[in-house]
Write a structure and sequence with these properties.
The complex is a heterodimer of chains A (about 180) and B (about 170). Chain A has five helices and eight strands, in the order H-H-E-H-E-E-E-E-E-E-E-H-H. Chain A is an alpha+beta fold and about 180 residues long. In chain A, a hairpin with a 6-residue loop joins strand 7 and strand 8. Chain A is globular, with a radius of gyration of 28 Å. Chain B has about 170 residues and is mostly helical. In chain B, helix 4 crosses helix 9. In chain B, about 55% of the residues lie in helices and about 0% in strands. The radius of gyration of chain B is 18 Å and the shape is globular. Chain B is built from nine helices and one strand, in the order αααβαααααα. Chain B has a domain of about 80 residues. Classes of the chains: A alpha+beta (about 180), B mainly alpha (about 170). At the A-B interface, strand 1, strand 2, strand 5 and helix 5 of A face helix 1, helix 2, strand 1, helix 6 and helix 8 of B.
Chain lengths: ~180, ~170
Amino acid sequence: MNLKKFASFVFILAFITSSLVGFSPKNVFAAAGAPPVTQFTILGYSWSSLYTGTNNYYDKSYASTVSVPDSTPYIITYEIGYGTRLSPYTMKTIDAFPITDSYNNVVGFIHVTSLSSLPTGLNNIKLSCNSMNSPWNVMSDSISLNIQPQTTTSLKTIPITSLKNIKTINDVNNLIK
Amino acid sequence: MNISATPTNFNQNITTSTTTKSNTYNKSVDANVENNTDVDKEQDAILYQRLKAAGCDLTNFSLEDQKKMIVSFPPLTAPGAVRKAYASALDNATPQEKKAVAGMSFYMYSYNKQTGTQTNLDNSVNNNVDGYLNLTNNFKGYFTQYQSALGDTEFKSFNNFLDNFTSELSKYNS
């Protein structure tokens, strides 16, 4: 009787163990589908020449202080869950970096998205993220960017002979007036 | 448009943006910051040129302002030795390693968000070579959770880069 009980205990234990093998949290995610978006935040902003190579960006808190010298700003978003980003602007994903949890599951992404051809001046930009799975919720965040594309005074427009006459800063002012 | 420039940034003002506001900040590199070492000054000069080329406003904001507002890794407020060690490691990195560490500042953001670890040591007593050595070593432990997300090759390249960075950084360790 005791042996029988022991045998059934071993059987149950073996069954549970075999069920757990290959049933890591990662697989739970796969079985249940991509988790919905639970967090969507704009971290900051950048533009091509600032971002390229060094991935530099301004923290969102400086958006009202530091303007963007490019009509194609980059927006950096932090997303927990899986969703589709939406915006009224023409968007292009520049980079996507995974966010993982301690079980090696990809639980979200940091996206770098470019928005094309924004008009000069203050732009209130709203980005949304629609969950890819139930409950199909939408999360959004916004940022106000002052777009001021740089229009430099080209030296080519100044006759080279005039440059020879520059002696003081007033001469420069007179030339570029 | 009227320009009140000093001869030191003469060339900069010839090509000043027509949309730029009045010049309220005319210093070029903030060489006036006390206690800056030669490496700090060298790295600041490189940074100044890089930010200027990127179109950052160095007329209305000082370089020190910009260093605080821009997010990067290493933070732009890190000691020059830390920034130089990172730049050296990048210069010597393979194309695979460069690609792998492209998201460094974002991975550091996630590290900070998930563990509460301070990844910008500005205003901290640890804002030195030792502080960043410790930060990088601790980050390596955290980053193991990215192995399957990145794949073995990219994960290995990332770690190789971190090793090279800490090796470069150790050269400045007193």
